[in-house]
Write a structure and sequence with these properties.
The protein is of the alpha+beta class and 432 residues long. The protein is built from 14 helices and 12 strands. The strands form 3 sheets. A 5-stranded mixed beta sheet has the order 5-6-1-7-8, sandwiched between helices. Strands 9-12-10-11 form a 4-stranded antiparallel beta sheet, covered by helices on one side. Helix 10 packs antiparallel against helix 11 and helix 12 packs antiparallel against helix 13. The longest helix has 21 residues. The protein starts with 7 loop residues before the first strand and ends in a 39-residue tail after the last helix. The structure holds a DNA duplex (18 and 18 nucleotides).
Length: 432
Amino acid sequence: MRRMHNVVALIDCNNFYCSCERVFNAALRHRPVIVLSNNDSCVVARSNEVKALGVKMGQPVFEIRDLIEQHDVALFSSNYPLYADMSARVMSTLASFAPRVEIYSIDESFLDVSHIRPECLDAYGHEIRETVWRLTGIPVSVGIASTKTLAKVANEVVKHNPCYQGVLNLIRYTEEELDELLASLTIKDVWGIGPRYAHRLQTSRNICTAKELKYTDEYWIRKRFSVVVQRTVLELRGIACIPLETEPKPKQGIMTAKSFGRPVESLVELEEAVSTYAARAVEKLRDQGSVAACISIFIQTNPFKADAPQYAGSLTRVLPFPTAFTPDFLGVVLDMVRSIYKLGCSYKKAGVFLSKIIPQEVLQADLFGDFSLEREAKKARLMAVVDIINHWWGHNTIFFGAQGIGRTWKMRQERRSPRYTTCWGEIVVVST
DNA sequence: TCTGGGGTCCTAGGACCC
DNA sequence: TCTGGGGTCCTAGGACCC
């Protein structure tokens, strides 16, 4: 097979979390929908109607109480089990359309569609879109181009212009047509250009549109910014610099951090919370088959409470050898919390970060002294059993004593929809 | 009352070594 | 008067993404 061009399609689920809620609740189809962050505090997903009302991503929900009431907006707590499962369905559908797929986030995938004849690309895009809709009920937008950055551009344009009916293929655009399109986009709309870079580009050389960025001297960009921004410029020119990553890379750092459902003052509760986060982080570590040697924790007060005493404490500890055995971490965590705890503070958030992560197989290579492979294997078997039980019967069916049993500090989730697809007790019932 | 939770990569600068 | 220079490793911080 002769391969003329690199062709990549970006498939992006529209307002993904909101769309997931709508799949199982037809009454929401024509109602504005908002999905909230942990603790039901911020807006993390908005239906089109809500975007049209001017509600911003990340906006605290208390700022828009009136708007919500006026427009009868449906509010939901984040229902991650549902979104993760719906995502898996979308992704497995997409896998049938391309030999190489990069799952970029919970709601986006890049597909290598170089095998499709150029004149068939538009139809292929529509077929992808219709198939995903039919099999999952999730609406998606499709952007097709010669680089990932341009595919992102196409997707951005599709989302804001219903005339494209969900699919834009830039491969058939001439350079002039493409430039005209890029001239209509601001640099903030370009993947990789955030608010800081946008501001610096504007003030230093009056670069405002995607087209202007495309024709900016790449070496000046490299010098003033970084190789990352240089790549963005080249990608806008149709030179692919960001390869498709089809294999998920094991994470180099694993974080579990959350705000509390209410302020926490006591050391005991803080110990429970940080232990719970640590246990969850180590669980994620095992999920990807890794071990870690380094753990950091932090606790902090509420920075928005200007009149209350403010404090942020953090600490890092290195273990004698890398492990994924929860008690090995819990042992040091309690000690760490005690040493950064400050009496008289009202804590709002805490977190745990694991680093110095290596694959479990590598562990055996070069360890001496205290370390016994046999003992580690035994620990691993114990954790495997814990994981299986929790996987089967649900999170935290069994857990460690240090995590506490009350957990009244846990985040609030007062508006969670049923876990329609992952929990037998909450499955949709059709009655006659 | 109420303000998210994950990740990535790159660069600059200091420590250290020869 | 006048204080090397280059390589490597590590860390902190800054930028971005969803």
